[in-house]
Amino acid sequence: MKLETNIDRKKFLNFYKKQYLNNPLKRDSLSGLLKGLLYNKSEMCKSVDLEPVMVVHEGKTVMICLLAYAHRMPDYIQMGFFESEELNVEAFELILNRAKKFAKEKKADKISASLNIHVNYGLGFLAGDYESVQSFGMAHNPEFYHLYFQLNEFRAIDMVSYKKNMKYADELLNSKIRSKLDSIYKVREADFKDLEKDINIYTDVNNKAFKGHLFYYPRKAEEDLELFKDLRFLLKPENLLFVEKNGEAVGFMLWYPDFNQIMKPNETVGLKTVIKNKLFSNKITTFKIVEMGVVPQERSRGAVLALFNHCFQCVKGKYDNVESGWILSHNNKSKDFGIKWADGESKHYKAYVKDLNNEKI
User: Fold this and answer.
1) Which helix (H) or strand (E) holds 209?
2) 212, 262, 278, 281: least CB-packed within 10 angstroms?
């Protein structure tokens, strides 16, 4: 069923929260974003056509999905915020059929699954380590989710994250390399007093760095500003780093503590998380390198090393472990960097794509 009333939207949102709250392995960090999308409050609603779909059987919600058509990603219909309480192939077919019709209406020729409106908000279903605790900003789902897409001829796109023990890490780079980098690059922290200015820079570098990247489409500064305003009270200026060359930003790194470690299973990220982060931040033992981008002309020239070196100075002695965000398995340069600097792979994820060119809808 399509959602026509606020009562239906509330049921949709409650079902989503139910999959995360009071589960010892999961934490609810995205329901705030979802609420903004459902009630047309998010900046993203200006450029994305949304259709929340909920399958109800005998008065009970069994599956939800937020279908999305992003104007700047016109080839795709997204099956975002997908949740299913138990394996139900018939329910999934109802949602998939509606996604196909939506694609026909929008003249899209692909359906993606696990992309939540934009890669900045989430991509990938967990594909292993199902008994491990979810880290902040990453997916956690039952194994049977993958059956829905495998049975319906979706193509899987593999992703991997990396981890490293930081307890005994002394220095990331030797003094000679650091000196050389310092002569070329300057790394600075974000200026939260002039957040709009730095978000404009962040958006510009992001769009240049990830142009042509699978699933990425250009962002607007207003969208990124909304995202950072939601996170602002959890972040410090050091969590958003810019690397500059000759006074111009050529790259960035976004990193932050794994806030899930201070959240209880019955909590949603919010004011309580902010307070606990101020009082008990020492209880967080892992930090996450969430996103890093460098403009094409500065890749393999030291900008990435400059960002990592500055990040290392920020976290030295504060955390036991670091975990990366997801990296596409075919992104060999990023994977090689992860293999070189990390202790090994952390978790695996899968996104899915279905080509509709040969489908009769």
Assistant:
1) helix 195-209
2) 212
Helix (H, G, I), strand (E, B) or coil at 4: coil
pLDDT in tens, the chain (361 residues): 667 788 999 999 999 999 999 999 999 999 999 999 999 999 999 999 999 999 999 999 999 999 999 999 999 999 999 999 999 999 999 999 999 999 999 999 999 999 999 999 989 999 999 999 999 999 999 999 999 999 999 999 999 999 999 987 777 788 899 999 999 999 999 999 999 999 999 999 999 999 999 999 999 999 999 999 888 899 999 999 999 999 999 999 999 999 999 999 999 998 899 999 999 999 999 999 999 999 999 988 899 999 999 999 999 989 999 999 988 877 766 666 666 778 889 999 999 999 998 776 5
CA distances from 249 to 104, 209, 293 (A): 41, 11, 11
171 token code pair: 């220095």
| One-letter identity of residue 88 | N
Residue 225 identity: L
- Residue 258 three-state SS: coil
Q: How far apart are CA 43 and CA 45, in angstroms?
A: 5
Asked if 102 and 73 count as a contact pair (C-beta separation under 8 A), the reply is no
Q: Which of 155, 100, 82 is nearest to 352 (CA)?
A: 155
Instruction: Give the integer Cα–Cα distance in Å for 336 and 324.
Output: 13
Q: Are 161 and 334 in contact (CB under 8 A)?
A: no
Give ∠ CA 292-343-231 in degrees, rounded to 5. 35
CA–CA separation, 227 and 42 (whole Å) = 10
